[in-house]
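[recover] target loaded
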């Protein structure tokens, strides 16, 4: 039965790549293996499939040979992980619309992972920021995930590789397709120091609609998403939205006031994203989360603070944090918490917004 389920998920993956929308979410209580057995008309009615999708389904059923697919992949050093496989990334299973199968070259690290995303046409500052963050995370063993595109994505991978850290590139095309072609050397570097990942089988073209779809995978593989530089309309903002939907932390790097290339990322900050303004502190947060010293996203406290204030500060995020949340994170009762927050505000470590929430301000 397990082999049958795995074959069904592989079939679902091939079908989804052709019809351009989720088929997994439309299965509802239907077992995936039913796709291989149920009459097309009955299945189309159950899943509300279009006439074109039914034709694609019938064509795939006629030609589908899971053994041949696996053999073809194996010859190229590519593995396939289905939702029924133990090796399928656990974080990715948590998203609303996980890919039925992942095609992988290399190995997806199981460590803490942070996605660095942004504009393909980022400024020199944006590119350097992405490289610096990628390098800093890589030096501490945090996996850098991005989309292997030009601009911010490529710089983030390059930084991780420079540090010898793990990195994962998520493709919006077939797992064997290098796009853009100018990134071939980077593709090979990522493959050798982490993994290339795609929900698309061999030879699938880099069609425009596939890139927004792949952004949910970038978000799903990570503990946090950082938008480094993004205009008002940007795929990076889609990644941030997916991250919020599946409960991941979202951060953004502040950009100059009025800069068109930063309107989207600055808007995220206005909407409550974490403010990434100090690389060392940000990296410390996720490094500490890796070894279990603090909860993911909990900022560290500087040395020299009284014990109660240090505990309270550790519960204040870079996003607006309500008092009851700070109390829950820090374990400090309200009667001690409020005076400690007042002292931290006076010392410049936190700021209070008009809603009464607190935001972390200071660098270590």
């Amino acid at each position: 039965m397990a082999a049958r389920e795995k074959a069904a998920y592989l079939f679902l993956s091939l079908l989804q790549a052709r019809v351009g929308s989720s088929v997994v979410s439309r299965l509802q209580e239907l077992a995936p293996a039913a796709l291989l057995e149920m009459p097309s008309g009955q299945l189309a009615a159950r899943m509300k499939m279009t006439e074109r999708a039914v034709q694609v389904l019938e064509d795939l059923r006629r030609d589908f040979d899971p053994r041949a697919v696996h053999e073809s992949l194996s010859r190229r050093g590519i593995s396939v992980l289905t939702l029924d496989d133990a090796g399928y990334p656990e974080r990715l299973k948590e998203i609303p619309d996980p890919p039925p199968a992942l095609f992988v070259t290399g190995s997806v690290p199981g460590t803490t992972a942070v996605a660095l995303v942004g504009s393909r046409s980022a400024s020199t500052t944006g590119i350097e920021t992405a490289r610096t963050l990628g390098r800093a995370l890589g030096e501490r063993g945090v996996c850098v995930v991005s989309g292997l595109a030009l601009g911010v994505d490529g710089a983030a991978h390059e930084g991780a590789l420079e540090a010898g850290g793990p990195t994962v590139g998520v493709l919006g095309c077939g797992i064997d397709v290098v796009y853009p072609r100018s990134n071939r050397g980077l593709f090979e570097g990522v493959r050798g120091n982490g993994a290339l990942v795609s929900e698309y089988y061999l030879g699938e073209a880099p069609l425009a609609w596939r890139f927004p779809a792949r952004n949910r995978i970038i978000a799903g593989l990570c503990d946090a998403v950082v938008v480094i530089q993004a205009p008002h309309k940007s795929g990076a903002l889609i990644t941030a939205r997916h991250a919020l939907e599946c409960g991941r932390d979202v951060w953004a790097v502040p950009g100059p006031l009025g800069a068109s290339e930063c309107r989207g990322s600055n808007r995220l900050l206005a909407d409550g994203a974490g403010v990434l303004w100090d690389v060392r502190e940000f990296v410390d947060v996720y490094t500490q989360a890796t070894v279990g010293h603090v909860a993911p996203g909990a900022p560290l406290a500087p040395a020299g603070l009284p014990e109660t204030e240090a505990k309270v500060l550790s519960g204040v995020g870079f996003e607006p944090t309500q008092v009851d949340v700070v109390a829950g994170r820090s374990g400090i009762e309200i009667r001690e918490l409020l005076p400690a927050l007042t002292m931290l505000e006076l010392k410049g470590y936190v700021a209070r917004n008009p809603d009464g929430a607190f935001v972390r301000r200071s660098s270590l």
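[recover] notes: The two ends are 55 Å apart (CA to CA).
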